[in-house]
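Sample entry follows:

_____
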Amino acid sequence: MRFAVIGLGNFGSHLAQTLAKSGAEVLAIDKDLVLIEQFKHEVTRAVSLDTTVQNNLKMASLTDMDAVIVTIGEHSVEASIMTTALIAGLGVEWLIARSTSSLHGRILKLVGAHEVINPEQFVAQKLVRRITQPNVLELAAISDDGYSMSDITAPPSFYGKTLAELELRKKYGLNVIAIKQRKRKLLPDGTEQLQEKVNHNPGPDDKIQENDIISCIGKREQIDKVASMKR
């Protein structure tokens, strides 16, 4: 896949490098020549351009990209909005823009961004969830009506019970799609190793054991309710 990342600040540079390491073709753009020199060996191609000039964007062949991500930061809100508007006018397939506030995000949507992201807000939400709901290992929204897919550490009250006995769908509206069974194995040197086996198609007679992780789909508030069970 091919991506263009515009703005090589802290977030943009990490994004460009991570995409490149995943095997994607990455075009990195920033008007700061120093940053281009710094990251040119980390991506497929790095170009110094003023992206608030329409002709410059046309020369960058952005319409050939699977996605264009505008990551220009909080010190250049005007440049972020202008760049996003100009790229939207080119008719790119997928335009993602970074916002630094709710107002900035609304404006980016109005000028043509298909998707708006706020990395700081996302990280803050993820940290809050991790420290308030430590049993929720992963959570990903899958629809706009509150449904998420999540990995939950099985609470002790589930140990030794089958899925039929737990009635998670009836009681909480949760559909279990996998059970990750984790067992500790004693190695010859006396240390322990945690081994994981995944049951991708669990049936009603499958039991939940200690250290198991339940992968499920359901409403976020119900996922939180099950994850917060103490016994």
In short: The longest helix spans residues 77-90. The mean pLDDT is 88. The chain has nine helices and eleven strands.
